[in-house]
Amino acid sequence: MERFDLIIIGGGIVGLWSAYFAAQRGLKTVLVEEHGIAAGASGGVLGALMPHSPDRWNAKKQFQFEALNQLPGLLQEIEARTGQNVGYRRVGRIAPILKEHHVDDVARRAEGANEFWQTEQSAFAMQHMDAGPAANWPAVEAMPFGVAADNFSARLSPRKLIMALAGSLHGSIDMRFATRAAFLGEKQVTLGDGSILHADKVLVSAGLASFDMLRPYAPSISGRGVKGQAAVLGTDLDPNLPIIYSDGVYLIVHDDGTTAIGSTSEKEFTEGRETDHLLDDVVEKARALCPIVKDAPVIERWAGVRPQAQGRDPLLGVIPQHDWLYVATGGFKISFGIAHLMAQSVLGALCGDETAPSIPKEFTPGNRLPR
């Protein structure tokens, strides 16, 4: 009989960070992944790390702020352990202002940044600027009332981080790929080949599949998949250029000078991993937004389905009345910016560590149950 302290189901960004912190705690851990590392939504190309707007502050925004502020130090730790660069750079973000009255909104958010985006080590800010930092980034006509600029946003390479995390786990935990978790029983997981793993705790972090896995134990907790499509353009641009975000379109220059373009948010779709004309539309919008990428070839197209939990907040914590079963999923578009803090929080909860980062009440499964 194979027995562990912890079984983690899912080899995406949340599952890998959870395995990383479980190994640090000395837990005998096995990670079970049906396909391969980051086979789902975590295998994308964008890598945007953008904070929520610093107004109407709430627990979710505070959690994300703390996560984004902590992340650079953790990435340096991963890079030092593995010798692999994860493509992180705090480049900031600019968002074209399309209507005159939105200038006042930017001023209000700038005040919010001065209040909520501050730490003892760093002072992050948002401001109104007449234009972006480089010609045609974006086009003059795309920013009729200037841009909202912040110095807090960053980007990384999702795939490089995934590979570095996986590499850091070598020899620390048991990792089983191409292994399906067929059935959850109390403190045990039956695999596709009929073998059974036993553990004191089970953590489900399998993205969209998490909701079906949990249904026998929490039938009222639900979520859905939202398809995203993105592309990479074969550019040779300055990797210090800020992220551009305008009307749902992202342009992100990575360390190799290529530009990631995204993304769609499709609630209705038939093929979750196939790209189509909706991605073509996003690419054309990006070319119009920034003429310097107008003639750049598309060198990669990508599609995946992101998990969105009921209520839109991440789903994080113990399943009520089942103290052996935990969940960490539903990061949706901000997963790469908060996955590490989700992992630390849920590991702290399942280990009974009161010094670990706390889970916001809004994220907990108990908060999603009927009242």
TrEMBL record:
Gene Ontology CC: cytoplasm
Keywords: Oxidoreductase
GO MF entries: oxidoreductase activity
Gene3D superfamilies the record matches: D-Amino Acid Oxidase, subunit A, domain 2, FAD/NAD(P)-binding domain
The organism's place on the tree of life at top rank: Bacteria
InterPro entries reported for this sequence: FAD-dep_OxRdtase, FAD/NAD-bd_sf
Domain FAD dependent oxidoreductase as annotated: residue spans: 5-344
Matches recorded under Pfam families: DAO (PF01266)
Name recorded for this polypeptide: Glycine oxidase
Organism: Maritalea myrionectae
